[in-house]
Amino acid sequence: xxxxxxxxxxxxxxxxxxxxxxxxxxxxxxxxxxxxxxxxxxxxxxxxxxxxxxxxxxxxxxxxxxxxxxxxxxxxxxxxxxxxxxxxxxxxxxxxxxxxxxxxxxxxxxxxxxxxxxxxxxxxxxxxxxxxxxxxxxxxxxxxxxxxxxxxxxxxxxxxxxxxxxxxxxxxxxxxxxxxxxxxxxxxxxxxxxxxxxxxxxxxxxxxxxxxxxxxxxxxxxxxxxxxxxxxxxxxxxxx
Length: 240
Hints:
Elements: H1 11-36, H2 38-50, E1 128-132, E2 147-149, E3 152-155, H3 166-169, E4 176-183, E5 189-196, H4 201-214, E6 216-218, E7 220-222, E8 227-228, E9 230-237
Antiparallel strand pairs: 1-9, 2-7, 3-6, 4-5, 4-9, 7-8
């Protein structure tokens, strides 16, 4: 009838209602399947979800910050200027000249077995002497023995021409005389005899007398270290 009202809903509304009914049926069907066949439902859902692959791309990490390289060593720079060489004056070393020192003259009161005393000079007169003490003797009183160390003169001299006898001094004939003395264990002269006389007998006598008075000795020693008498020869030169 022309006069009837058209009460059909619009097209959009009808589509929405139809879609809602479909969804309702699907929900009921899913509920029934979950209730009676849960394994089938889970497998179906997994297959449905696996059909959709979602690729998530993460942005690449930012590149590391660039650092300035260490400066290269300055290889071309010249080194510090060296010290200027200076020529040094050279000279040959001075040769060392050895200084020879003359020995001091012997003191009149000292001497050795070989040389003793000094000599006096003046108006052509002088006197000196030399002695040796290798002689040996035998002691007495139970203490004697062969000497292993000779007599050693330690004091006394005849070293002045004034000791020569005045009566014959000017004639100058008693040039030298040799005497031999026996030295006791106390170091004193016990005996003196002329072994090589001079032309002047007075010079011989005064030589033995002065030697006995003035000379003192270290006595000879035997192997046991005991003093023993010994011999000592002395040659006196009055003029030279």
